[in-house]
DNA sequence: TCCTTAACGCGACAACTGTTGCTGTAGGAT
DNA sequence: ATCCTACAGCAACAGTTGTCGCGTTAAGGA
C-alpha cells in the first residue's frame, strides 16, 4: 500500500523457535515465560491462561510475549515443543494389538492428564495459527513414528502387506480423541483397549489395504 | 459471601430455549438474532461472528444478546437447535456397510459444508458451555437414532448379537472427525467410505461385542 | 382496563487482546 | 574497550468480551 520504506526501524518479528543468542537475555526470557505458562496451567487451568497473566507472572513485558509468541496458542505451542521428547518411540509389545493398546493408553493419558496441555492446545488450535501448526507437526511426527508398529505386524504376518499404516493408526486412535474431546463422555481407560482391538481386527481382515 | 439480599431487582437470567411469551417481543428478538447469526456465518464466516456484530446486524441490544445467549457459542447452539430436524433418521441401504457409509457421508458434509455451522460449534464448544452442551445433546440424539442400523445388521446376521451399537458407530465416524477437525488433512470423501468399511469389518468379526 | 413483571434498552465499566513507535540494554564480534 | 544490533521494556491506543445497575416497554392475566 505505502510505497516509501519506513523511515523508522522496523520492529522486526523475532523467531520464537531457535534463539539466536542462546545463552543470553532472550533465553532467560524464554525460560521464565514458558515456566510461567506451565505454572499457570497447573495452578489455575486453561481459562486463566491469558497473555497478560503470563506476562505478569514471568515478569516479562506484555509486548515481548506478544512479539515472540503471538498469542496464547503460541505459548502452548512453545511448551509442547519443549516437552516433546525427540527420541520418543512406540513400545514393542510383540503384537499389533498390544502395540496399539499401548499407544492408545498414551493418548488417553495425554488427554486426561494434568496439566491439560494437549487439551488446551487443541482448544487453542481452533483460533490460533501457531497452536494449529504445532499440533499438526506434532501429530505428523507421532503418526510417522508409530508406523513401525504396523511394519512389525506385517513382518509377523498379522496383517496383510500393503496395509495403510496411517489409516490403521487413525482408526485405532480416533475413537479415543472423539469420546474424550468431542463427545466428552467420561470414557475410561477400557476405551483405549476396545478401540485398539477393533482396529487390529479390521486390519487383520484387510480393511486398510488400498485397492 | 454477602448476607443481605440485593435491594435492587435481580437481573434474572432468562431462558434462551423456551420463550415464555411465545408470540411477543421475545420471539421477535430471537428470530432477528438467529437470522443475523446465520447471515453473518454465511457471508463472513466464523471469525466475523462476534456478539457485537450479531447485535448490530439484528438491531437487538448487546446486553440482551449476552443475557439470552451468553456468548457466541450460545448463539451457534441456538441455530443448531433450530436447524436440527426432529424427524431425522439414518438411511436404510440394506447393508451395514452401506448404512455406515451413508452416515459418514453426512458427517463429512456437515464438517465441510457451508455455512460451517458444525465446525464453528465444535470450535466454540471448547470455550463455551452452551455450545458444548448443545453439541453433547445433538450427538447423543444422533447416535441414539443411528443405533437402528446396528439392530438391522444384527437382524440380518451381519454382525453378532450383543454388538455395542454406540461403540461401532463411534469407530465408524471418529476417523472422519479426527482427520477433518484435528489432523486437518484435506481428507476427501473416500475417507468416509474407508472408515465405515473398516468398522463394519471389525463389527462382523465381533470386535464390538462386550465380553 | 389496569397491573404486574418478564424481558429489552441504555450507558458505564473492567479485563483482555493485539499493535505501534519509541527508547533502553546487553551479546557478541571487531 | 567499543561498536553494532537483536531484542526487551515502555506507554499509549483501539477493539472485543462480558457484566452491572437502572430505567423502560409491552405481554398477558385480573
TrEMBL record, chains A, B:
Residues 27-87 form the HTH tetR-type domain. InterPro entries: Homeodomain-like_sf (IPR009057), HTH-type_TetR-like_transc_reg (IPR050109), HTH_TetR (IPR001647), Tet_transcr_reg_TetR-rel_C_sf (IPR036271), TetR_C (IPR011075). It comes from the Bacteria. It holds the Pfam family TetR_N. GO terms for molecular function: DNA-binding transcription factor activity; transcription cis-regulatory region binding. Keywords: DNA-binding, Transcription, Transcription regulation. Transmembrane segments: none annotated. Residues 1-27 are annotated as: Disordered. The keyword Endoplasmic reticulum does not apply. Residues 50-69 bind DNA. This is Transcriptional regulator, TetR family. It comes from Micromonospora halophytica.
